[in-house]
Design brief:
Structural class: mainly alpha
Helix content: 40-55%
Radius of gyration: 18 Å
Number of strands: 0
Oligomer: single chain
CATH class of the largest domain: Mainly Alpha
Order of helices and strands: HHHHHHHHHHH
Largest sheet: none
CATH topology of the largest domain: Serine Threonine Protein Phosphatase 5, Tetratricopeptide repeat
InterPro entries: Ankyrin_rpt-contain_sf
Distance between the termini: 39 Å
Protein name: ANK_REP_REGION domain-containing protein
Length: 213
């Protein structure tokens, strides 16, 4: 019975994923799945549809945006306004990460500098709440509210970028396909370039994902 429930849940997720607007520049559905820890399930579904060019391009844009968001948060932590300005656009200021669904403006709100105001000027929404229900404006106004540094994230709290460790020099050609899927999803697909496998499923994934590196 539990197996049937899991299968139904997976089928529902696949239906939702395959009916997204693949031309969209924003990714609220994927962000929600990432926040709730279901991105690995997304990876398994993506692995079944490697020949769907629109889906693959959509996923590629999402992972690139998440990598830019991580870079923007690092720039905020470093108080590097020049670097931040080079990264920020309207879509990025609305993007949320896997750590309690926070946007760049949440991290800027707890910093004692003017970066928060810069993000607001760029279109960030101070009334945006994270998954704890706290808005960026509330973080800004209440000095007792804190957010852990985005540069000090543990494996247990990061649902996307730290789920697997991967060393290209320790690549297992007959390894776990789910690991390969996650590497692709978290933006490290370049590590899979020119890799081969005797495992049929892994080989199919490597061949299908190579065009989207």
């Amino acid at each position: 019975m539990a197996t049937n429930g899991a299968e139904a849940r997976q089928e529902d997720l696949e239906y939702r994923l395959m009916n997204l607007d693949f031309d969209a520049k924003k990714f609220p559905e994927l962000e929600d799945l990432q926040i709730t820890g279901r991105l690995q399930e997304v990876g398994r579904i993506v692995g079944k549809h490697l020949d769907n060019e629109h889906l693959m391009q959509y996923i590629t844009r999402f992972r690139k945006q998440q990598n830019r968001l991580n870079a923007a948060m690092a720039a905020i932590e470093e108080n590097n306004l020049k670097k931040l300005r080079n990264l920020v656009d309207r879509d990025l200021v609305e993007a949320r990460n896997s750590r309690n669904g926070r946007a760049a403006v949440h991290y800027a709100a707890v910093q004692k500098n003017a970066i928060y105001d810069t993000l607001i000027d760029c279109g960030a929404d101070g009334s945006l709440a994270d998954s704890l229900g706290i808005t960026a404006a509330q973080y800004r106004q209440n000095p007792n509210l804190t957010i852990p540094s985005p540069l000090m994230i543990s494996k247990s709290t990061d649902l996307t970028f730290k789920r697997y460790s991967f060393d290209e020099h320790q690549y297992d050609p007959d390894g776990d396909v789910e690991q390969l899927e996650q590497i692709f999803l978290d933006g490290r697909g370049y590590l899979l370039a020119d890799k081969t496998s005797k495992n049929m499923a892994a080989s199919q994934f490597l061949n299908g994902s190579s065009k989207y590196q």
